[in-house]
Design brief:
It contains 16 helices and 24 strands. 32% of the residues lie in helices and 30% in strands. The chain folds into 2 domains: 2-195, Rossmann fold (3-Layer(aba) Sandwich), CATH 3.40.50; 207-446, Alpha-Beta Barrel (TIM Barrel).
């Protein structure tokens, strides 16, 4: 838990801010002494109320001067709603009452052509120079605004009849006109980034991927590819996982016999009808026509496994016809007694003797655009991913690697990402309702991972 001090401004959004800080992993304490204002490692000043009243409350408590000094020093400070306005020289709400003067601008009332106060959600558009702020929808409750970006600050803008400053940042000082504590997951993510001083992600983020192993049109789950049990309807499961924050879905048909091909296509169609994120489908893919059938049904990528081992040129043919971005090589690997890992097929019953790292490398050379790497030894054990295997494959290929097999905790996911995985796949922890993707992502952010929120 990160200690964070909160300024008692006497305004009305204190309880919601304290709750949000706790959800973000903070341990909030009230900062009612001037020394705390200056020295606190993190300081938050919430504010809903009148400009003059807030100024009076802070000044009478002896906090006004230390607050200005802290901001001048650039100490980590988060000012919300009225807090942003108090940074300015003054406000039309309280003529003659001086603000902190950090920003030499006057806060203005919205024009009479719009409804005031602005109550509700509005689009926030962050400039590329922002470190903490990202574009998204935030909740506002304000009648006054800062009209334009002040010099020396990176800003995010919004529009309510006229453009205005939705938020601004300078170093570790962040001020928001909107209410991040009331802005859902987007607002919570902003609080977390500032709280842990982790700038927003600017490159690809780690993906969290629920896996649906399917047999006879039903989701199943087992341990080491055996002891399968029913885990629900694929379309329903996929829709729930998307709603809860999944980045992609993987469907692996664990029977994929000739008789089951029609069921597989119908399953993919049903899932795609309810799914708005990428879908990878594997099982029974041997030739381009098999892949085309699944892509036409709604898959975005196809995974090939045993058929590629039997004839590696199948990877070439798939990549040439559909592009490597559509081709996933699924590698099931088991440890060798003498060291290293070998490729296994047929639910682990057939040990091929093929070196797993070398095979993944060859598959990528032939045109695979992604590696779905499953540890046979760890699958379903809840003991974590095979990290040495992940590190060995990730360092040997130039395409994204999805870690699979053994996840039970957020620490397992973070370990896999640290070992070189670009995405982490799991099944049991989602099917059994132990975790949701959104909860895991919040925890991963606190551990330093970059994820889509």
């Amino acid at each position: 838990m990160m200690d964070v001090h909160v300024v008692p401004t006497g305004t009305s959004n204190l309880a919601s801010m304290l709750a949000a800080l706790q959800r973000a992993g903070g341990s909030p304490v009230m900062a009612s002494e001037p020394a705390r204002i200056l020295d606190a490692p993190r300081l938050v000043m919430p504010g809903v109320g009148a400009f003059a009243a807030a100024r009076e409350n802070l000044e009478s408590a002896g906090l006004w001067g230390p607050l200005r000094e802290r901001i001048d020093r650039g100490r980590p400070t988060f000012l919300v709603c009225l807090g942003l306005q108090l940074l300015c020289a003054g406000s039309e709400e309280s003529p003659g009452v001086a603000g902190l003067g950090v920003v030499d601008e006057q806060v203005r009332r919205f024009p009479k052509t719009v409804r005031v106060p602005q109550l509700g959600w509005n689009l926030v558009e962050a400039s590329p120079s922002c470190r903490w702020l990202e574009s998204g929808h935030a909740y506002f409750a304000n009648s006054y605004h800062l009209p334009s970006a002040p010099a020396g600050w990176a800003v995010a803008m919004a529009t309510h009849g006229i453009p205005f400053v939705a938020a601004m940042e300078r170093g570790a000082v962040l001020a928001c006109q909107f209410h991040p504590e009331l802005s859902g997951a987007w607002g919570l993510a902003l609080i977390e980034r500032w709280l842990y001083q982790r700038p927003r992600a600017t490159g690809p983020t780690a993906r969290i991927i629920p896996c649906l192993d399917v047999r006879d049109g039903r989701v199943v789950k087992g341990v080491k590819f055996a002891g399968l049990r029913d885990a629900g309807d694929p379309a329903e499961r996929a829709a729930i996982y998307e709603e809860r924050g999944a980045d992609e879905i993987v469907i692996l048909d664990v029977s994929a016999t000739l008789e089951e091909r029609k069921t597989q296509v119908e399953t993919v169609k049903a899932v795609r009808a309810r799914l708005g994120i990428p879908l990878t489908v594997g099982g029974g893919v041997r030739e381009p026509d098999d892949a085309r059938r699944l892509l036409d049904a709604g898959a975005d990528k196809v995974a090939i496994n045993t058929a590629a081992i039997e004839d590696p040129s199948r990877i070439n043919r798939l990549a040439e016809r559909f592009g490597r971005q559509c081709v996933v090589i699924a590698v099931d690997a088991a440890r060798r007694q003498e060291g290293g890992w070998e490729v296994v097929t047929h639910a682990g019953k057939n040990r091929t003797g093929i070196d797993a790292v070398a095979w993944a490398t060859e598959a990528v050379r032939r045109g695979a655009g992604e590696v779905l790497l499953t540890s046979f030894d760890q699958d379903g054990t809840r003991q974590g991913y095979d990290l040495p295997l992940l590190a060995a494959v990730s360092s040997s290929v130039s395409v994204p690697v999805i870690a699979s097999g053994g996840a039970a905790t957020v620490e397992h996911l973070k370990e896999a990402l640290d070992a070189g995985a670009d995405a982490v796949l799991a099944a049991s922890i989602f099917h059994d309702g132990e975790h949701t993707v959104v909860d895991l992502k919040a925890a991963l952010v606190r551990l330093g991972a970059r994820v889509r929120r």
